[in-house]
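TA notes. Do not distribute before section.
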Amino acid sequence: MAGMLYSLVALGFVLIFKASGVFNFAQGAMVLFAALAMARFSEWLSASGVGSAWMVNVIAFAMAAVVMFAVAWLIERLVLRQLVNQEGTTLLMATLGITYFLEGLGQSLFGSDIYKIDIGMPKEPVMAFESVFEGGILINQEDLIAALIAAVLVAALSLFFQKTGTGRALRAVADDHQAAQSIGIPLNRIWVIVWCVAGVVALVAGMIWGSKLGVQFSLATVALRALPVVILGGLTSVPGAIIGGLIIGVGEKLSEVFLGPYVGGGIEIWFAYVLALLFLLVRPQGLFGEKIIDRV
């Protein structure tokens, strides 16, 4: 479950970097803001007696998606449009500013309480493969559904980038902003699209995280936990975000169980960063990232 949650957050990093070359530090704040919006909308709709719990969740998700589209449009209009063709460091600092703004705005609009999102995912574990392994394997149904949701997102996004004209335009903008503009690709529209898609991905991540652990302001720090994932999987690879998340999620839990007793515990806190550091030394582009070749 931890690996899938890291993967969904890392997807937002990959999408925006792949399409705009911007490393978006605001992705964690977007997850928090989206989760807060859906939690409060669900709460308000339930109190007003709109209908069944399923209907409430659908309407709340749609309303939160509209909010994230509006956030994406405002980010492009007020921030990114003013910074076209600027240095990467300038854009990175702009996303840091967006992070703090979204955290403050979320607290002002939705409050600072801890909220729970109930989207109806089964939480009871089931036993599987009892005929294969002695005692079987205990599988959390909620974890399985989260994995399926992530797989569907990855498949859809991969098709979007590879098979659609907009997806190819996104990749062209990522390669060279000025060259893409020179052949008529509208940079502003492309950035709005990719931030909207990243907003929906953040909403899905926040929805699953809120269902599992509750919606609280510590969600904004999830971006820091997803950084080793994008380093491991590759900043330009959508499937790499999922594979990297699974490796990090499973690795940190196994290391805590099997190595923790020998070093006094706490491995889970730093395991992902050490693994990311090793990959930076050996394969800086990550498992599935595009290798950068400089010709002189």
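Switch to the second chain here.
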Amino acid sequence: MRIVALIPAHQEQDSIGRTVEALLKQDRLPDQAVVIVDNCTDATYERAIQAAQGHPAVVVVRTPANSHRKPGALNWAWNRYCQDADLLVTLDADTSLPPHAVSDWEREFESDPCLAGSSSKFTMPAVGGGGGNLLVRLQRAEFARWTMTGLRRGWTSVLAGTACAIRNSVLNAVAERPDRVGPWSYRSDVEDFELTYRIRELGYRCHVSRTVRAYTDAMPTVRALWGQRMKWQTGTCLDLLRFGFNPLTFLDWRQQAAGMVAALVRVTWLTFLLTALALGALHLTLIWLLPTAAFIANDTRQSLLVPHRDKWDVLMAVVLVPQEMFAWLRAGWFLASWWQVLNGQTKDRWALQYRAELQRG
């Protein structure tokens, strides 16, 4: 197979070096790796060149007047560098792959002609220093749940743009659609979800790799996390409304319904609790502890699935409070995103995510 890796980078001077260096340590090097420096005003270009160290397989380029953000950078590079590729690896500029990743992906696609795309099991590096950053640990736990769900099902509706591999003949088929100039759509704020839907719409299968894990940066603050997740959730809502309800979107609509129910249940529970307290009608009984015990048992079981876990990941689940706070935060961006969508609010959500990602520095 001829394998080409695309790494779109916007203001990633602090992480691009690690990403390129990890790619050059692959036991099966890509035949070509293209770092796409997109509308950067920092030192991303210079640090990418420095990390490449003149390696002939690495090309570092700047996009010419791209106004379509990450999808535009990917389409431009795909049209210019990937026409003779068999397999395409896309990788965020803040993401590192273990040395066996590319070779494992190559074996997956060679052994399964029906496989169109393979997503990595993405997570964050291990958190040191005692309990470490609580918010990072919560994101690791969340991503672990997503990974295990995809592995149990045997397929996925999202080839995570964080790091994935896609058969290029399938990308060519998607690119033939009249609504785009390459595989990635400019109408979607979640280009990886939209692309995966188009691939599955053509009858192909996508899954989560059982062996390829990718390590990406977490959002270090609640404000940064909120900006990132509002873009993800709002973009998903808009795409689902555009796709409609069909067999390919059934599970995604069910997940949206479950998220809405979970958010409304929490809001309703808090309303009744505060009302009962105000009226002096709140009486605690042992039965109140049963749901709490069930939540703790479930969160503890889930914590054992977190990669590179330590005692703090398990303790965080046992005490319940951090997970519950994260659930309230998730309910917040879930309700806020649907409110914006149904009220027709338009925002530059790419700009919001870029600002969120800059806070990682």
